[in-house]
Write a structure and sequence with these properties.
5-stranded mixed sheet, PTS-regulatory domain, PRD, Arc Repressor Mutant, subunit A, about 700 residues, 6 domains, alpha/beta
Length: about 700
Amino acid sequence: MLNSRCIKILEMLSRDDNTYSVDYIANKFNVSNRMIRYDIDAINNYLRKYNINEIEKKPNSPIKLNITKEEKESIENLIKNLNIQTYILSNNERCGILLYELLSLNNECTYSYLQEKLLVSKSTIVSDLKKAKEWLKQYDISIVKSSNKGILIEGLEVNIRRAMADLLITNNEYNIMITLEKLYTKENSDTIKNFRKIQLSSSNIEYIKGLVRELESSFGTFSDNDFMNIVIYIYIIVNRNIDKRFIDDNIYKSIEVEYTKEHIEVCKLIEKLNDKFSLNINKQEICYLSSIILSSSKNNKNIFESKDYLEASSLANSIILQIRKQYIKDFSMDSKLYKSFINHINNLIFRIRFNILTYNPVCSLIMKNYKEEFLISKDISQIFEEKFNWKANDDELSYMTMYIYTAKENMKTRLKEDKKNIIIACNSGFATARLLEYRINNIFNVNIVAITSIHDINTYKDYEDIDYIISTTDINNCYFAPVITVPAIFNESDVDNLKQYLNYKVNKEKTYTANDLIKIIESSCTIENKDKLISDIEKYLKTGSRNLKSLKHCISKSNIQLNVDADSWEDGVRISAKPLIDEKIIEEGYVDAIIDNINKLGSYIVVDDMIAMPHARPGNYVNDFGISITTFKNPIKIGSYDDIKIFITISSPDDDSHIDFITQIMKLIDNEEFINLLENASSSDDILDYINYI
């Protein structure tokens, strides 16, 4: 009889024509040379039974398996068709099977039952049960003694399912999937009867995979790991329902109301499972499966319509700001990565709300190879601890780590590839040149090699790698680098022109006053007319303020409505949006889209106690950035929320600005002083003054 190590040695030797030393094999399996010699004897005894050439072993010589092509095929078939009668389970393999068997039982079982199934002694079963008890503690599951020397599993159904799933898909010492693949091949189907409900038939699994692929059209593409995670959970749901073991936890009940669209899609999947397996899966099970799917990592194409999107945007921005403040001053994510990060935070919020654990198969590798980024992740996770009273585990932190590492690498690449070397040439004096230097440096990723007068440009002709000369006047001479002409005080159209040549900075947080710039200029020049320069700079800084999308530039007194009557949430949405329609910031179609989304998706616009933020996908029926604030005399009911008294309706013309805009508004909503003001305000002037002040 062969143990798992013997099987691996036989596979290794039969796979190619190489020779291996006993030392090499012993080191590979971390055992003594003597143990390997015993294994070779066992393998040769096994091969002898099937008239297959044995492993050559000579003193002080490498070992080799000389076999014909037909013998090689015979060995492959023998290994493929190994079953419980001819395969000796390793300690961990046996413990994994034991755990799954216990978790699958409906009633108590005896030691003799387990001995018969696993073909081991009672003392071995006792030893394995000690390991099993220790492993099950992490799931709050106990193995308890019952009458007649029987044992029984005690624990919540949701925890039992999580343990079963981990045994099947998680890379732990008791994972049984590889063992099952060895034991339960198509040709070996009779052996499967030795264990309960581990019927991972390829046809059933492929059927479930097909259902999950259908889900992706609504939920977005799942990561490979989470795709299989969902498949296994559906498999477990089917088997537990066959055994009349149901989810009875009401923690998932709110999903039906709060995540209406997703819940409807899962209902369609459950109907197909009911038909296929002759089941009657209940509502709690549907909500439970919805929770597994919603917590998974996916490329959600409809992220803007997700219930937790607004909060996710705010948290993603807070994380980036904290990294800049404490670790990496210029930390940023490009648009694509930032959206993916928001999507990840969106899924994380759901996992936190419903206490769902995630698993990262490469967690240990990430912790080992990206130590600095992992420590940053651990530190910034305090944001979630403070907000949700939730502590991130290493798996969650490792996912966060990869976003931070990827952003850092992208920053290096952008700087290396896109940071242009430029010379600024100005005929209006060095004060203007310094102002131009500030403006360009603040907006673009550039390396300013020199600031010079036009007649002195050729002084720098021997400098290597000058990409552009930026001049404040047209230059007819041919110079050693292309010339870009801009006004001394340039506007947004000039910025757009420069974007064709220079790399635009993103996620700028710092803004400057005219006095800040005066100090910079004074350090290099004598200012003859300080008041006029301040006036010119203030006009200059005002240019493009719309591009900052500041709330104070998007709201006016006419956008604030207080103590309004509304008959329903739909009436409230239309009332709150009316000022934006009147100002032609949005069109009626945008309001219809919001109402349609609420009917399809549920209460996704509810962002906090008493507060809703009506919004739809950016771009459609939107002409500009807009915000309106409406308070209602009486609470409005939206889904399961019946205390909504504040609507903050927003619009933005594109995806990227939508994220920035929402982040600013979420900061306002998190401000308790502002919310108190809204609740008690009798004048829109008070609210407008507060927004302008902050």
